[in-house]
Amino acid sequence: MTTMRQDVSIRPAELADHFLGIIDLYRAHGWTHASDPARLRRAIECSSLAVVALDPDERVVGFARAMSDEAFAVYIADILVAPERQREGIGTRLAEAILDHYPLERFHHQVLVAERGAEGFYRKVGLVPVNSFGLTAFIRSGRD
Ligand SMILES: CC(C)(COP(=O)(O)OP(=O)(O)OC[C@H]1O[C@@H](n2cnc3c(N)ncnc32)[C@H](O)[C@@H]1OP(=O)(O)O)[C@@H](O)C(=O)NCCC(=O)NCCS
Asked: Mean pLDDT over residues 40-68, rounded?
């Protein structure tokens, strides 16, 4: 079982301090967002909530963001943990920071589209496939 590392703090993302670290995370995972920094910056600025995981040297080792109508639904857009810091509980703490901010007592839906290979992680943090509720998720996607 994952050991939760307490030397990492979860804080609201401050672009002036954290953007270079955040873009490095996208780059480390080969996500195309990193190829257009201005577009990624705008996406983060327009997100409802963005949080970073910082190590004791204030280095960004994790990032998550979400969009919400602040009333009924929240959509988790990205969760990323630095490759060398995975399986330490950092992803869980980032997910909990978002899910706790939009509690199910007030919000009808917490949703996300899981990347291939990340399904197991999302099950661990308490999310379930939509078909568990007899629902179907639909998507149009610009990628293969
Ligand atoms: C998915 C990701 C965010 C998980 O972060 P993490 O910090 O490694 O996760 P945690 O250490 O909090 O793991 C929590 C639990 O999920 C499990 N888990 C983590 N990643 C998993 C995976 N890819 N598949 C199955 N289970 C996984 C862990 O084993 C742990 O279970 P345990 O408590 O029984 O040991 C991280 O692997 C990552 O950044 N991946 C690349 C980016 C990505 O695909 N993000 C998801 C976008 S939808």
From this structure: 98
